[in-house]
Amino acid sequence: MSPLHRPRPSQPQTHSGKDLPFSAGLPVTLIECPRDAMQGWPHIIPTARKIEYLNALLKVGFDTLDFGSFVSPKAIPQMADTAEVLAGLDTEGSVTRLLAIVANFRGAEEAAGHEAIQYLGFPFSVSETFQLRNTNKTIEGSFATVEEMQDLCAKTEKELVVYLSMGFGNPYGDHWSEEIVYEWAAALSRLGVRTLSLADTVGLATPEQVFSVTDYLIRQLPGHTIGVHLHSTAHNRKAKIDAALQAGCRRFDGALRGIGGCPMAGDHLVGNMDTEWMIAHFRQLQLLPPLDEEALREADRLAADIFS
Known about the structure:
By secondary structure, the chain is of the alpha/beta class. It has a single domain, classed as TIM Barrel, CATH 3.20.20.70. Helix content is about 40%, strand content about 15%. It has an 8-stranded parallel β-barrel with strand order 1-2-3-4-5-6-7-8, surrounded by 6 helices. Helix 8 links the parallel strand 6 (about 195-200) and strand 7. Helix 2 runs antiparallel to helix 11 (about 295-305). The chain is globular.
């Protein structure tokens, strides 16, 4: 039976989340996403510059670095040198783990063959249009691919992170509802996937949606890590982040200077959450783990130069 035809879960409670305090003493997990920043950049970034930038980020103290992707160079030319970049990274002494995005099983096999990579990330869209654009497969076909990838990760001691792309709506006219997101999240959980990241791929989410969807999944999937990969302009980023925090989320993706967006979306892109802003916000809330401030300044200097 298709996951979309399983009985719908009950609706989440309807409230704004303003009455829910942030969990004191539970720090956030920061995932820095230079891959997302670089993949759609209009000018090819030299391999040596990528290596320099990523090595600087590895010194900051982020939990995870989404550093590259093993995808078709025809689809994403900027990522054609990911294996070469990986060979130049100095992970010795770094607390940061590496995540690579893959779009098919062949890419997953390539990524899993690298000892330095701990996480494989797969974009699983609840929008049929975007899934076809992004991975050239239907949602059902992509679900079968995830099943293969999960088996591969179990054999190679990697962990699969599934991004629920278009998790808060889509601009293509495809039917979307919270129930659809919940059904696919539950189906992925049954495959053994334990880390799911809700992706606001084109920046459509409202704070109320962020709270409602994130809150429901955190409550319904205990023992899982539910993160958010939010795209946002400056005017509502605080409201979105606070909504996720109030829902109990502690895994947040971002990119220095707020650069990024999926080039396969084919729309006006809204950038990533600005990591520097998130750091300042989480520090004010006393939710930020220690970071190397000097390394952060150097990484920001390089980002300013690369993305100028």
